[in-house]
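hey so i finally got around to running the thing on that chain from the lab meeting. sorry it took forever, my laptop kept dying and i had to restart like 3 times. anyway pasting the input first so we r on the same page abt which one it is
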Amino acid sequence: MRAGKLRWCLTGAAALALTLAGPAHAKTDAVDILGAGNLFSLTAHLPDRDGYSYSLEAQDHRHVELTASKGAFSVSYAVLGRASTRRMDADFGPLGEVHIRFHLEPELVFPASRDKKKGRCQRRIGLYDGRFRGTVEFTGEATVTGTVAHSGAVSLISFKRACRHPQPTASTSSASARTLLRLLRRRSKPAAEFDVLSAEGEYEGRSVTFTALKVKTDPSGLLTNLDILGAAATERVGRVKVTRSVSAFAEGPALRVSRKGKVPMTVIASPPKPFAGSGLFKATPGVGSSWSGDLAAPLLGLGVVPLTGAEFSAHLCRASSFLKLERCL
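ok and heres what got predicted. didnt touch it at all, straight out
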């Protein structure tokens, strides 16, 4: 969901917003660069049109994703394709196709360094910029303007680990979280505290999710007292996985959570526009939980989609660290 494409500005908020409102393939953020294993994040920037901004992304060598964003709204189209440091190819069926080649130049490359924990393994981080040439044709939909491009800017973030003898490594996401947590513990900062309300259900055959994050305190101080909310609907159209999303930020009480120990535990979600209505989560130990209200969100191409009802279930997760927050999400 890739809402807003906030990548480097307020990196923490961007990463959380993309997690809350994004599709299955989460965006790469600064935290990922700290992780173990290999990282490949390729982005081709396409020209804006009719208020939409477009990008082509590959987070590995097989999955290609085209995203169209307009304000708080975005639609992502993901297919199996081919991506490397030299080219990108993808067939989006009736929605279009991509065949482009790259010329990349290193902007910032950290020389290989020995990983003490892995013995003979070495790490190398590189940031590359350049241009692409070829054909990008995206026909669009009734509510999403299409675009065509034959050249443009492209960027690559690469993190490689090379070992003389292959060894099992932890997943990038879990290793990233542990690394970040260690860095945060080295500072004398306030403890982190988060509340995450998640709801999921179905609407007209589509998978629909709503996630609201209340940041009470965080060691960086950037996100304290911030509520981040996102909704998304995912469906498969032929070979294309389509995810429509919307997100919002609020400094006010968009998410009101009852104090710890109170029975029943309640959460009232009242997101700002473009969301409408509110949702009430109520949970009693040994009895169960409920999720009700008239909360809804507009999604490009679908109109207003309900986020509560008989087809939805919800739960609340409370975290006291970034590592526990990752488990909540």
